[in-house]
């Protein structure tokens, strides 16, 4: 079988490789985990919902016939204490063999402004700050590649250093989601520079428009259904949306690439190289945002 249905890509051989991936409980993350396990990878899956995670692990073991196909660790990206505990557990689990690929697929949207136990705006915490902390804690164990799923939504994101968590107002789903993804893009840009020459690569991913539960955030079941129906003609399935993630995780690519669908508006299609917004290419701003983010999570 060819990789991702492409006649010119053969299946990667991931036997003996250890991959750590967030977001495997649902949607495109689950589809990516299934494919990676079929290619022979050993997966460590940090999950917030243990019941969902156990269902995925059972399926991976059943379909691959391997007990070592996957294991869970408890980790909530919205809780810095949980991230630290999860990172320690992952480090023990991988031992001296380390991590061949760290994939950040988890993401979220909320219907209204919510704060985490650490006082962060929840979308910013889960989509940017939690992954940053987990990456920094695991970085000594990673010796292959880091893949960060972001979004072309970074194009309408704006950074406000005086009120990053929207505590003084101005909260909207679009504004916060865009800011969280621009923060992730800028942190990724800075991390790519810091990783240059170390032997560890970084890849950024835009999955396109995918029919998952992320778009069901209006607060109205009827409106959620309408959004799904209207967007279905140009949206991709979760299996199709996993393709850019799999491509970024397994294919030879230039360090620091941004990968996403090749179709109109980068909504759907096969993975290709995508351009970034001007704001997401500002290395000086990336350093400033990363310094702020590291301080927020207690690493400065």
Protein traits:
300 residues; alpha/beta; Rossmann fold; 8-stranded mixed β-sheet; 9 helices; globular
Can you characterise this structure?
The chain has helices at 27-38, 50-64, 80-94, 122-138, 173-195, 221-231, 238-241, 243-250, 283-296, and strands at 18-22, 42-47, 70-74, 99-104, 142-149, 201-205, 257-261, 271-273. It is α/β, with parallel strands linked by helices. It has one domain: NAD(P)-binding Rossmann-like Domain (Rossmann fold, 3-Layer(aba) Sandwich). The chain has an eight-stranded mixed sheet, sandwiched between helices. The longest helix is centred in the middle third of the chain and has 23 residues, at 173-195. The chain is globular and about 55 Å long. The mean pLDDT is 92.
- Shape from CA axes? globular
CATH architecture classification name: 3-Layer(aba) Sandwich
Q: From the helix content, strand content and strand pairing, which structural class follows?
A: alpha/beta
Q: What is the element string, with H for helices and E for strands?
A: EHEHEHEHEHEHHHEEH
Rounded to the nearest angstrom, the distance between the terminal CA atoms is: 47 Å
Q: How many structural domains does the protein architecture include?
A: 1
Rg from C-alpha positions? 18 Å
Helices and strands in order, then pairings?
Elements: E1 18-22, H1 27-38, E2 42-47, H2 50-64, E3 70-74, H3 80-94, E4 99-104, H4 122-138, E5 142-149, H5 173-195, E6 201-205, H6 221-231, H7 238-241, H8 243-250, E7 257-261, E8 271-273, H9 283-296
Parallel strand pairs: 1-2, 1-4, 2-3, 4-5, 5-6, 6-7
Antiparallel strand pairs: 7-8
